[in-house]
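To whoever is on call:

I kicked off a structure prediction for a single chain this morning and the downstream step that reads the tokens threw a length-mismatch warning. I double-checked the sequence; it's 194 residues and nothing unusual in it as far as I can see. Pasting both halves so you can look.
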Amino acid sequence: MGAAASVLRKSCAWLGLGAVGFVVGFANIFLGSAVNAIFVNANGTYGTAVITQARETNSQLNDSNIWEYDVVMKTADGRDVKTGFDTMSASLYPPRNAIEIPPTGERFVVKYIPGFERNIAIMRDESPFGKRLLVEEALGPVKRAAAQVAASPNNREFRREYREEIEAFIAHHPGATSPETAAFYREELERLGT
């Protein structure tokens, strides 16, 4: 397009359009899904979706196979729309440096643009699978502190750190875990004492 505009306008300045297009195209490889997710979140309508089939491809990304997903989305007005995506094109909101795809058969929250329903953004923090991942991530420091106590049960510093991590987790995520897990950590606090 830059070359054509350069010939028509009789100005070499239009050749820069080719360089701009190359840079934008290259950036799209890495940022396209994130930009799409931000756009769909800002302008989209809520719906729900279910992955109906997942197929492993022969392609790889970071030494992991790329998967293709078939999806059925239910729009806000109750229509079913068949769509799909793959590991590389999945739009996940909020953008993070992780590709977290919902399990097959589990309903999750999406946003879409009315009129172009096939383009969806997976709202991971609003979906059950995303909430589970957030709780698991929040439990990381608690599990690390528990492992330290298991390695040296009489270390007062480790016991104090474990107690603080449990208290911080409970304060920031009340009701986020199962009743059994909550009861386990309450018992751990009693066992650790003050």
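Update from on-call: the warning came from a stale cache, not from the record. Cleared it. Sanity check on the structure: DSSP finds six helices and six strands in the chain.
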